[in-house]
Backbone:
């Protein structure tokens, strides 16, 4: 028998023995083990999984002929078909396996002895593959040695068990500063410029109506990381100090905390309503303008619905919104009202209403200090300027006609389900209609 055949038999025998051993304890209950025994079992299972994964990766990397023999696109696809596993996961392993087999033997060795998980190996290999071509072999070897040591815990001042994938990713991104500081800054600048260009090339934003839930639109976006971080910062500025408002706005005043995705969704809506159209780029001869078709009686009597001209919908370019929503938009966005009489004749084509100016906002903040709803303490800097005399009834953007309200109470101000009374102090009190 050849050496290769003998080695292959040893590999297969080891795997079959491991399977048989595990099958022999299938009925055993880990719950009866002591705490110390379970702690050891858990860590050993993770190490065993790393060893099995490394062997599978190594075998797939050497089995291109298997895919060819069966007409499969790649060996990962064939294994997935035979075993009922997910092809994408196996292809991800195969990609790491190819890189490890080609250039990074220390990563393979650490996985083979169960000291490095697949997740750690993937992060390390990604960082090593990103090293610039002009660095020498000695630099690459030192980078691999250092990163593997960080992952296995074999380096000084590294926690027992090594760093996890998150910390390893940070270390891998900066490894060039450790192993070749003389070229790191220039290479980092090139790498970041390339990443930025690639991110911008793939940036996209898609909007389509949510078919299962009328009234909702699904927004799917891919943006560069710095832009995403900036958006998250803006949204957290809304959610952090206004959890209570967002809870009530979502119809759940008793909840201690909204899920982050829900809170950020509400915050995103509030953020858009705060945008000053006067500062947006002009298009079609004017800054961004919302055009609304609404019957005059609906506008003045809190009745009915309005048609919002909207190029993103599939409803002939017009989206139905409530009259209350129109009145609220009139306080915070440029509205071009097309007010219709009883016979739908055009009665008035109003000009765009401007927002309260920055100077007026400062004066309102100095005067009101916080939301003027009774008992509300949301700071003025997080509030919205509301017209006391509704724009739909000829209200003006003057200080005496303005008041600061938080997002939640601004919604109530325009909600036909509530009545609003003004207290002698100037605060607003709300009651649900019965």
Residues:
């Amino acid at each position: 028998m050849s050496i290769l055949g003998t080695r292959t038999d040893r590999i297969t025998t080891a795997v079959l023995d491991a399977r048989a051993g595990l099958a022999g304890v299938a009925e055993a209950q880990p719950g009866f083990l002591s705490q110390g025994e379970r702690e050891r079992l858990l860590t050993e299972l993770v190490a065993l999984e790393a060893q099995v994964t490394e062997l599978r990766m190594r075998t797939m990397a050497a089995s291109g002929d298997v895919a060819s023999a069966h007409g499969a696109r790649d060996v990962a696809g064939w294994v997935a078909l035979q075993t009922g596993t997910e092809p994408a996961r196996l292809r991800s392993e195969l990609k790491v396996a190819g890189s490890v087999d080609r250039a990074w033997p220390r990563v393979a060795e650490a996985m083979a002895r169960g000291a490095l998980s697949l997740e750690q190996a993937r992060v390390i290999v990604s960082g090593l593959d990103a090293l610039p071509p002009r660095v020498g072999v000695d630099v690459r070897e030192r980078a691999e040695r250092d990163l593997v040591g960080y992952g296995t815990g074999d380096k000084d001042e590294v926690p027992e068990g090594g760093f996890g994938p998150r910390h390893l990713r940070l270390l891998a991104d900066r490894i060039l500063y450790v192993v070749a500081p003389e070229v790191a800054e220039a290479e980092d600048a090139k790498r970041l410029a390339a990443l930025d260009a690639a991110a911008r090339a793939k940036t996209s934003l898609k909007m389509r109506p949510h078919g299962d839930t009328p009234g909702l639109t699904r927004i799917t976006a891919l943006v560069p990381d710095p832009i995403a971080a900036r958006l998250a910062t803006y949204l957290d500025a809304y959610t952090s100090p206004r959890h209570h408002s967002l809870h009530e706005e979502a119809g759940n005043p008793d909840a201690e905390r909204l899920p982050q995705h829900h809170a950020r969704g509400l915050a995103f809506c509030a953020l858009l309503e705060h945008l000053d159209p006067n500062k947006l780029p002009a298009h079609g001869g004017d800054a961004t303008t919302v055009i609304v078709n609404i019957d005059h009686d609906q506008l003045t009597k809190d009745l009915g619905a309005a048609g919002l001209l909207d190029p993103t919908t599939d409803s002939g370019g017009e989206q139905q919104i409530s009259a209350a929503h129109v009145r609220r938009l009139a306080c915070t966005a440029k509205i071009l009202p097309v007010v219709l009489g009883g016979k739908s004749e055009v009665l008035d084509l109003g000009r765009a209403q401007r927002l309260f100016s920055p100077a007026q906002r400062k004066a309102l903040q100095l005067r009101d200090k916080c939301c003027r709803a009774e008992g509300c303490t949301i700071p003025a800097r997080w509030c919205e300027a509301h017209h006391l005399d509704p724009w739909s009834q000829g209200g003006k953007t003057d200080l005496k006609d303005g008041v600061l309200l938080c997002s939640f109470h601004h919604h109530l101000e325009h909600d036909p389900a509530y009545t609003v009374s003004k207290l002698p102090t100037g605060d607003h009190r709300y009651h649900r209609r019965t």
Remarks:
- The mean pLDDT is 78.
- The first helix runs from residue 3 to 24.
- Residues 32-198 form one domain.
